[in-house]
Amino acid sequence: MENLIGLLVASPLLGAGILLTGGKRLDRVGHWLGTLLALVSFALGVALFANMLGKDADDRGLHSHLFTWVPVGGFRADVGFQLDQLSMTFVLLITGVGTLIHIYSIGYMEHDERRRRFFGYLNLFLAAMLLLVLADNYFLLYAGWEGVGLASYLLIGFWQHKPSAATAAKKAFLVNRVGDIGLSVGIMLMFTTFGSFAFADILPKAQEASTTQHATVTGIGFMLLLAACGKSAQVPLQSWLGDAMEGPTPVSALIHAATMVTAGVYLITRSGAIFNAAPDAQTAVVTVGAVTLLFGAIVGCAKDDIKKALAGSTMSQIGYMIMAAGLGPIGYVFAIMHLVTHGFFKAGLFLGAGSVMHGMNDEVDMRRYGGLRKYMPVTFVTFGLGYLAIIGFPGLSGFFSKDKIIEAAFAKGGTEGWILGCCALLGAAITAFYMTRVMIMTFFGEKRWVPDADGHEPHPHESPSSMTIPMIILAFGSVLAGGLFSINSSFVKWLEPVTGHSEGDSPVSAGTVTAGTMVALVIGVGIAWAMYARRSVPAVAPRGSLLTRAARRDLLQDDFNHVVLVRGGEHLTRSLVYLDHSLVDGVVNGTAASVGGLSGRLRKLQNGYVRSYAVSMLGGSAVLVAATLLMRAV
Amino acid sequence: MNPANYLYLSALLFTIGAAGVLIRRNAIVVFMCVELMLNACNLAFVTFSRLHGNLDGQVIAFFTMVVAAAEVVVGLAIIVSIFRSRHSASVDDANLMKL
Amino acid sequence: MQLAAAATQTSTGEAVQFWILGTVAVLGALGTVLMKKSVHSALSLAGTMIVLAIFYLAQGAYFLGIVQIVVYTGAIMMLFLFVVMLVGITAADSLKETLKGQRWLAAACGLGFGILLIAGIGNASLDTFAGTGQANSAGNVPGLARLIFTKYVWSFEITGALLITAAIGAMVLTHRERTERRSTQRELSEARVREGVHVAPLPAPGTYARHNAVDVPALLPDGSIAEKSVFGTLRGRGQIRDVSADALERLAALEQRSEEWLERDPDRVEPVRLAQGPGGDRAGREERTERESGREHESERAEEGAK
């Protein structure tokens, strides 16, 4: 079975290689080939999963060492795969959702002449993501990490003829790079501390190392958190996610909902042992998660662009996961569980949004939608199920996973637990509000359609079956996954051997938390209902309050970055340039000038006249004689 | 009289010769001044020979003369060839080596 | 000369000789440096060298004294004079200094160096001297020879190599490679005829016996100088000595004397048309004013003479 792990990665990688180098003759079959290879990968994943289920809970890890990649003295980096329950969960999510999105893209990208290339990039993305979650050491993980960054750059900027898309791709790449620096520094610290890259060498020793090298382990934790912030769009590296919606909608669904942004959660969960050994880093993680979940939720409330509203939602939900992962053993399992359920319903929501856009001449402004439920029934139903799942409607996926995270936050204990729990509850209320808003503005109310730039009236219609089928499958996932996972705590038992689990002691009972969540849900939905269903939605956005305006501008994240980083950087470079010119160049040029001036004067001695040279000779002889006499006298 | 007076004379002649080298521009005269300096040295050597009571100083003076002869031959040949090409015997005209 | 093994004083005779000849030597050295013409410098230097030769002899260095006279004053100084002649004795050296500050620097350095040397000698304890009597007991030349061929034989051999090298070097330096074939006399004369400028040989310089040096041009029948009779280089340097005025004056005086003696009428016969030489000689002009009356007659004849 071990050999299949390599094939799991190799399959989409092969697809990417063929599709990107195959040339035009593959244009007609490229999308089928890409989808087939993604499906092969998924099938392999399922086979491995079945194999894994047949084993004992403690004996389920598979390890496959392929070759030694970089053997340089004491430095040794291997290419090896490790498939345990955590990786397995991700493999199934990535290949499953990935395959569905491949299928969806066949219909969505039908009219794009560069469809073959698009599928190549998608396959490359899958391969990189699988490499990331299957690697058995941080060095290989880093390779997958960078591959994901590259693929996301290519996919976000896929419509590179649009300057906004090209800029968004660059922005995503640059912001990710900041996180990547964190990861690389963290890996270097790990190597110097533990002398290895392998999870098996590092993680078991983390607790022991923290007693002797506490600061280093905490530093590693912070560096990994920085990496996770970059990849998972957490505050303060969140700014790229909203702009990344410039990419095709399947990309948004695949990368920015189900897979890429979850890499940070995976990293923190995988490195759980390090965070357990570094409580300060853990505190930072929960803080980042809590801040981001509110940040993303507030941004999501103010956006009129359906994809950007969903992007804010994604940020917020990832915030939940990061917060849960930061809670330690009480939260890891629920972070991953929410990640999986979120993968279903958020992918479904994005695909639904793509379907709406597909029918509305690529219009993204929700103020120009309205009353679409009659025209796109399948989209409406699947989107609606995703909506119910994300707001935590009882019985659907989101209810189980989110509720558990809120419980875990309270279970953290102390003031910290109360603050986190209240944040999570508030986030749940806001989530209910903005998702209801999206739902009402899109599918209910009167038609507010306007012709597009070319004057075409929108004729909303249901999308082709290649698009609706994935949406239906994802809707099933959104509805059932949470319940399945929670029956008999099966998901907790599944992951416990890898991540560990503890219940914690919550100051509030599970029933109270559930009741609180329900209250938050009702309040959020009620406010949205009052604001958007009872009144007609204005076609032009009202000016709104200060907070609304700030939220429309992503809570001034770009302004902050511009003022602090860009301007600050400019000032720094300018002062450095000034310093360089005045001080460094001054010293260098001054030395050169003084040498030049001195030699200009000394040069006059070299006038070419023999007699002048003779004078120097005689003068020198006189000095020598004087010195000799002086020495004799002394 | 003490034979050291010969040494004073030698020093005087040497200095006069050196000053001549510095002052005169005619290469031939400069050369003569160099010869004067060599001769002053020879006088010193001969005087030293007398002071020490052996002939080594005289032998050195003899060698000086031979070397001076060789030097004169080559030096005058140089002067002649410079004069041929530049029509001047002034040392100041041979200043192409300056920066 | 001195037989004393260690003495503090030389003989009075030597002292007298030293002070007299020493003065001469210093004067000669100063002359070498200060004389304007290089010939004079060379002669002054020769004088100094002879004085030095005498000093060598006086100090028991007989061989060196003779060699000094023969080699230095005889050979080397002649070589100097020869080169001076070759380069041009009249190229008088201007003593005006052209390098800024050179004279002051030279004076300062020279004075400083001299004072230091003399101070150094004064400091040395030279109260006694051995004298060369002992060393010269077997004769100065055999003594030197013994040293040269035993102790200094290696230096001697090297000196030989040096001399040979110097001789070859001098030959190489002064040798001029002929790059084209030398024209034969026949080709030269043919070329001359073809040009037609000067088919006949150029006039020889110094027509008159008193001035037959190369820098004196020949005079033409009308008393003016023949430029071509002087060597081109001298002409280029402007070193022609125009003696026509002097000659004409003497000639006119002779003429007048003979006429007086023959009691001829000076107006009737005009032996020579006085030329307007470059010198613008006074005698000629006076003569002309004297013979103002017969002017037309003269000019006719002068034209004939010129032709």
UniProtKB/TrEMBL annotation, chain A:
Membrane topology label: Multi-pass membrane protein
Location within or outside the cell: Endomembrane system; Membrane
NADH:quinone oxidoreductase/Mrp antiporter transmembrane domain span: 135-423
GO biological process, one term: ATP synthesis coupled electron transport
UniProt key word ATP-binding: no
One GO cellular component, as annotated: endomembrane system
Annotated NADH-Ubiquinone oxidoreductase (complex I) chain 5 N-terminal domain residues: 69-119
Gene3D superfamilies per UniProt: 1.20.5.2700
GO MF entries: NADH dehydrogenase (ubiquinone) activity; NADH dehydrogenase activity
Bilayer-crossing regions: 32-54, 89-106, 118-135, 181-200, 212-230, 251-269, 281-302, 375-397, 417-440, 469-488, 508-533, 610-631
Top-level taxon of origin: Bacteria
Key words, A-Z: Membrane, Transmembrane, Transmembrane helix
Classification via NCBIfam families: NDH_I_L, PRK06590.1
Family matches, as PANTHER family: NADH-UBIQUINONE OXIDOREDUCTASE CHAIN 5
Full protein name: NADH-quinone oxidoreductase subunit L
Source organism of this protein record: Actinacidiphila alni
From TrEMBL, chain B:
Subunit description: NDH-1 is composed of 14 different subunits. Subunits NuoA, H, J, K, L, M, N constitute the membrane sector of the complex.
Lineage: Bacteria, Bacillati, Actinomycetota, Actinomycetes, Kitasatosporales
Primary enzyme class: translocase
GO molecular function terms attached to this record: NADH dehydrogenase (quinone) (non-electrogenic) activity; quinone binding
Catalytic activity: a quinone + NADH + 5 H(+)(in) = a quinol + NAD(+) + 4 H(+)(out)
Family statement drawn from the similarity comment of this UniProt entry: Belongs to the complex I subunit 4L family.
Localisation per UniProt entry: Cell membrane; Membrane
A GO biological process held by the record: ATP synthesis coupled electron transport
The protein's role, per its UniProt record: NDH-1 shuttles electrons from NADH, via FMN and iron-sulfur (Fe-S) centers, to quinones in the respiratory chain. The immediate electron acceptor for the enzyme in this species is believed to be a menaquinone. Couples the redox reaction to proton translocation (for every two electrons transferred, four hydrogen ions are translocated across the cytoplasmic membrane), and thus conserves the redox energy in a proton gradient.
Pfam family, one: Oxidored_q2
Primary location group: membrane
NCBIfam families xref list: PRK05715.1-2, PRK05715.1-3, PRK05715.1-5
Enzyme Commission number(s) of this protein: 7.1.1.-
Keyword set includes Cell membrane: yes
UniProt keyword annotations, A-Z: Cell membrane, Membrane, NAD, Quinone, Translocase, Transmembrane, Transmembrane helix, Transport
Membrane topology category: Multi-pass membrane protein
Name of the featured protein: NADH-quinone oxidoreductase subunit K
TrEMBL record, chain C:
Principal EC category: translocase
Record bears the keyword rRNA processing: no
Superkingdom classification of source: Bacteria
Membrane topology: Multi-pass membrane protein
The enzyme's E.C. designation: 7.1.1.-
Predominant place of localization: membrane
Region Disordered, residue ranges: 259-307
InterPro entries recorded: NADH_UbQ/plastoQ_OxRdtase_su6, Nuo/plastoQ_OxRdtase_6_NuoJ
Record field: catalytic activity: a quinone + NADH + 5 H(+)(in) = a quinol + NAD(+) + 4 H(+)(out)
Locations listed in the record: Cell membrane
Transmembrane segments: 16-35, 42-63, 69-92, 104-122, 152-173
Gene Ontology molecular function terms on file: NADH dehydrogenase (ubiquinone) activity; quinone binding
Family: Belongs to the complex I subunit 6 family.
NCBIfam families registered for this protein in UniProt: PRK06638.1-5
PANTHER family, alphabetized: NADH-QUINONE OXIDOREDUCTASE SUBUNIT J, NADH-UBIQUINONE OXIDOREDUCTASE CHAIN 6
Protein name stated in the entry: NADH-quinone oxidoreductase subunit J
